Amino acid sequence: MPRTLDTKCFLDTVCALLQQGQTNVAVPVTGTSMAPFLHNGDTVFLNAPPMQPKKGDVVLYIRKNGDYILHRIVRVHRNGSLTISGDAQQSLEHLPSADCIRGIAVAAKHNDKLITVNSFHWWFYRRVWLWL
Are 130 and 55 in contact (CB under 8 A)? Predict the structure, then answer.
């Protein structure tokens, strides 16, 4: 019988590892909100979040209701608040500060290919996709 793991429990553990300084923590992608960049079944590799996140960063954050979400920063406001959205979504979400961010994606495995932040694929979605 397959074992299942509670997603919140798993991501709480991931966040604890990131706070302890672990790098490249692998997290499976579920859902389609980050398509076409990331798909259900892909893997992202997370590091602890930077002090000052940037537009285009893919971040793991926690909502007020306790849900963990992996989306892209669309805008960083002067007051420190953030506008975030999934690549496949038109709705925007506002975060009061970067304190909600628990991790930043530094690489991803998509179709068995490793994509790093220095790759054209990553650059395209960070810059061009946001512009579109």
Answer: yes
H helices within 21-117, ranges in order?
A: none
Q: Would the CA dihedral through 117, 127, 77, 90 be positive or negative?
A: negative
Please give the pLDDT value at position 43. Answer: 97
Omega of the bond leading into 28 within 30 degrees of 0 (cis) = no
CA distance 81 to 7: 27
The pTM for the full model equals 0.91
Is it the case that residue 11 has pLDDT exceeding 70?
A: yes
- Asked whether the beta carbons of 83 and 92 are under 8 A apart, the reply is yes
Residue count of the chain, please give it: 132
87: three-class secondary structure by DSSP? coil
DSSP 8-state secondary structure symbol assigned to residue 48:
P
Using CB atoms within 10 A of its CB, is residue 74 exposed (0-12), middle (13-18) or buried (19+)? Answer: middle
Helix (H, G, I), strand (E, B) or coil at 80: coil
